[in-house]
């Protein structure tokens, strides 16, 4: 893992013209990772991975896998803005996504492989830690966006 802290700490970026941030706007190669627990009509977990300036999102109907051997369905949903990763609160009755949203896990991830139907990534968060995979299931219908989410055995 990169460690840029020794680069950042002695520099005053209000004064020096040196590079302050990498292009992605983060002080390392690690990207934002969050899972929000969403008590909507059905309780589910919204996993979001920072990519290309947005949060790629999946809804997981059951508790995300904290250890290897558990496979979870993860349904791809719409991209969310980056700042959404900090959102917690109550979406009022009658509105889209009504219900309480709480952060269930938060940290960073490192993409190892990102393909159309396979994403392998290293999560470093509180509850989830290690190498995880998202594998896209063959769609039965065109609109299907079902993936399997699981932790890799070492
Ligand atoms: Mn949701």
Explain this structure to me?
- The protein has 154 residues and is mainly β.
- The protein has one domain.
- The protein contains 1 helix and 9 strands; from the N terminus they run αβββββββββ.
- It has one helix spanning 5-8, and strands at 31-39, 43-51, 54-60, 71-81, 89-91, 99-114, 118-125, 129-136, 146-151.
- An 8-stranded antiparallel β-barrel has the order 1-2-3-4-9-8-7-6.
- The protein is globular.
- The structure holds manganese (II) ion.
- Residues 38, 40, 44, 46, 59, 97 line the site of manganese (II) ion.
Give a quick set of tags describing it.
154 residues, mainly beta, eight-stranded antiparallel barrel, globular, binds manganese (II) ion
> Any idea what the shape is?
globular
Helical percent range? under 10%
Strand line-up across the major sheet: 1-2-3-4-9-8-7-6
Q: What's the total helix number?
A: 1
The distinct ligands, each listed once, are: manganese (II) ion
Uncertain ranges: 22-26
User: Total strand count, please?
Assistant: 9
Biggest sheet overview: 8 strands, antiparallel, barrel
Q: Strand portion, in percent?
A: over 45%
N-to-C series of helices and strands: HEEEEEEEEE
Instruction: State the end-to-end CA separation.
Output: 18 Å
- Mean pLDDT over all positions: 89
State Rg.
17 Å
Q: List the domain count as a whole number.
A: 1
The secondary structure category is mainly beta
Outline:
This protein has 154 residues and is an all-beta fold.
